[in-house]
What does this fold into?
Amino acid sequence: MPKKILQLYHEAIGRMSISADADIESIRRRIIRSEFNDLEASPETLARIAERDEDWAGQAFDDLRMTRFIITNWAEFVWYRPAASSLDDIMAQLAAMEATAIVRLSSMECAPAMPTIRRLADAFMMQADGEDAIAATLANQRLMLAIVSATHQHRLIEDYVKLASPATAYAAASRIGEPELGCMKRSAEELVSLIGTRSVQGCAAEAVAMRLHPLQPALS
It folds into this structure.
């Protein structure tokens, strides 16, 4: 993988995980549940919420901005709270880019990327068997990031990373429960078995199903 793409991949995948700081993780989940809509998005607010000091609040604010839980709206910072239609649009764009990557990989030598893709698929399966939809959704996002990055298409990966933020994964997880995760596991199994083969349509369809209609795997 070219150096620029490798750096972009590692930076993106490094952010795509549950926070090691329990207070930040709690705040992430509360932001997605729109619990802070009446509060200013600021380090001072974070310090009050978590009952932590200013240094922690400043670092937490930077973390939440980097992972897109705090965004800018004109000249002010606001909590990330996407409308349903906006989230639908983001999911559709991600699905389109993932399908594009799968089509691209069908004409490439993708064997070098397969060990990482299979490892991340196994990690998703494990998380999908758990009770935390957010952890499973992040694991699925890491898998998809690896698939898109395997194309070595810098512009595609850049555009993908901009949309595939941790905050977007948390928002998507609010729509997913045990039935959806069970079906997504089936889609992931098919997807990984078909990448790089002539079954391009079926492979891409499974990726789209995981994003847009997880209860209806393409090859069910």
Observations:
- The mean pLDDT is 93.
- Strands lie at 70-73, 76-79.
- Residues 22-79 form one domain.
